[in-house]
TrEMBL record:
This is Phosphonate transport system ATP-binding protein. Gene3D superfamilies: P-loop containing nucleotide triphosphate hydrolases (3.40.50.300). Keywords: ATP-binding, Cell membrane, Membrane, Nucleotide-binding, Phosphonate transport, Translocase, Transport. The keyword Cell membrane applies. NCBIfam families: ABC_phnC. The keyword Nucleotidyltransferase does not apply. The lineage of its organism: Bacteria, Bacillati, Bacillota, Bacilli, Bacillales. SMART domains: AAA. GO terms for molecular function: ATP binding. Residues 5-250 form the ABC transporter domain.
Length: 256
């Protein structure tokens, strides 16, 4: 099941004086798939880091299922963070380990310890679950292969299987297709959205590709210089509302 997320008046100014977010508000329903768009430097990653509390906001609240994450102590926060499965642009796999071992890492902190995950005799229950996650991404046949002997698309599938092993209710995907060719990118977006839909998971995905945003998102939130400038269901978006985003004369944003 997915989780309800609310962000209220979220602002972030870094120690160097750069204001990356200003007064961001939105509510995301359980199971909703939201795409976050914006130029380089518009604040998308900062928003992700504030939502997962790897970065402390300067002001504002982030509620997950009604619980305000910035108010939690570290231990309770860890429990809430486990609800968030993060998919990265560069996969973040451990390349000298097997596909299976990488997926097992998703159980760390949930049921397994570091030793259990790495042991060749990781419990059969954990291995069965990891195999099930690999089946969901179509890679069960590669469970024994080293992670460095995979294509980019296959590496991202392993990362998605590892994220599933964590049993999250929220997927935070930070440019999951930026390192892939267009065909592999489309396949990964189709897989992520299928998994999110089947399990009713809430998904927030940072993308730079407007076509993928319109094809795979339910709703688009766009940021410009740290402010929310668009928040609408995909079906109600006129692409001209986003022309500023794809104007080749626009410069990289620097917010100060
Ligand atoms: N740790 C940091 N310390 C200081 N400034 C930062 C830090 N991280 C990001 N910034 C600044 O905050 C602003 C927003 O950056 P952020 O990475 O959130 O943007 P983004 O939209 O994710 O960009 P991109 O698409 O390039 O990943 C930028 O001006 C950036 O230089």
């Amino acid at each position: 099941m997915g989780a309800v997320i609310s962000v209220e008046r979220l602002a972030k100014t870094y120690e160097n004086g750069v204001t990356a977010l200003r007064g961001i508000d939105f509510n995301i329903q359980a199971g909703e798939k939201v795409v976050l768009l914006g130029h380089n430097g518009s604040g998308k990653s900062t928003l992700f880091r504030c939502m997962s509390q790897f970065e402390q906001p300067t002001e504002g609240q982030v509620f997950v299922e009604g619980v305000n994450l910035p108010s939690l102590n570290k231990r309770t926060l860890r429990t809430y963070r486990k609800q968030m499965g993060i998919v990265f642009q560069h996969f973040n796999l451990i390349y000298n380990l097997s596909v299976m071992q990488n997926v097992l890492f998703g159980a760390m902190g949930r049921t397994a310890t570091f030793v259990q995950v790495l042991a060749p005799f990781a419990t059969s229950q954990l291995r069965e679950e990891a195999m099930d996650c690999l089946e969901q991404v179509g890679l069960a046949h590669l469970a024994g292969r080293r992670a460095d002997a995979l294509s980019g698309g296959q590496k991202q599938r392993v990362a998605i299987a590892r994220m599933l092993m964590q049993r999250p209710s929220i997927i935070l995907a930070d440019e999951p297709i930026a390192s892939l060719d267009p065909k592999a990118g489309k396949e990964i977006m189709a897989l992520l959205t299928k998994i999110a839909s089947n399990k009713g998971m809430t998904m927030i995905c940072i993308l730079h590709q407007l076509d993928a945003a319109l094809e795979f998102g339910d709703r688009i939130i766009a940021l410009k210089q740290g402010e929310k400038v668009l928040d609408a269901p995909v079906g109600k978006i006129d692409q001209r509302q986003l022309s500023w985003l794809y104007d080749i004369d626009e410069k990289e944003e620097g917010v100060s």
